[in-house]
Amino acid sequence: MEKEGKLKFEVVTPYGLILSEDVDEVTCSGSEGEFGVLPGHVPFFTTLKIGMLSYKKGNTVKYVFVNWGYAEVGSERVMVLADSAEKSEDIDPERAKAAMKRAEERLKKAEEFDFARSTSSLERAVARVQIAEKFR
Ligand code: ATP
Fold first, then answer.
1. Who has greater pLDDT, 59 or 4?
2. How far is the CA of 121 from the centre of ligand 1 (A)?
3. If 132 and its partner were Cys, which of 81, 93, 103, 123 is the partner (CB 3.0–4.6 Å)?
4. Which domains does the chain have, with CATH numbers?
5. Which atom of ligand 1 is nearest to the CA of 98?
6. Three-state SS at 20
């Protein structure tokens, strides 16, 4: 049963279901810019970039890291499918810092073949560090 005036917010990755909650509002970093969703939103589908999702439950705002993906928005549901995702409290900042260092080293060596991969790794690591540290 849908709770009245709520959105079912789900984040799914190949690693499993990361989040499934009844929330009041969801904000996503879409490829075309940030967008917010309230219950009753018109349905649409969009791609997401590496970055942050947030959701509001009452007065509490929570944050989730998302690695690319898609968002399917309906009037009562926001479904995010991502390559990987973590709730802010589940991010290991030391692991992200190590990943950041590795990606920076690879980029310094100008390994052209690996440039896109290293840039994405770096983007993921930077976003994870920011989300873990700022919003814990
Ligand atoms: P790493 O190089 O540290 O593996 P990555 O960006 O290559 O990082 P992903 O491919 O995005 O990692 O994710 C692989 C799995 O590891 C996913 O389940 C993801 O949620 C998890 N993961 C990656 N980095 C972290 C982190 N810093 N804290 C917690 N979980 C993480």
1. 59
2. 10
3. 93
4. 7-88 (2.60.15.10), 91-134 (1.20.5)
5. 3
6. strand
**Residue pLDDT, tens place only, 16-52:** 999 999 999 999 999 999 999 999 999 999 999 999 9
Virtual torsion, Cα 52, 57, 60, 62, nearest 10 deg? -20
Q: What's the pLDDT tens digit per position in 64-114?
A: 999 999 999 999 999 999 999 999 999 999 999 999 999 999 888 876 668
| Per-residue tokens: 127 | 């976003």
Report the separation in Å between the CA atom of 9 and the middle of ligand 1, taken as the mean of its atom positions: 22
Cβ atoms of 28 and 11 closer than 8 Å:
no
DSSP string, 75-134: SSEEEEE-SEEEEGGG--HHHHHHHHHHHHHHHHTT-GGGHHHHHHHHHHHHHHHHHHHH
pLDDT, position 135: 63
Contact 66, 51 (CB under 8 A): yes
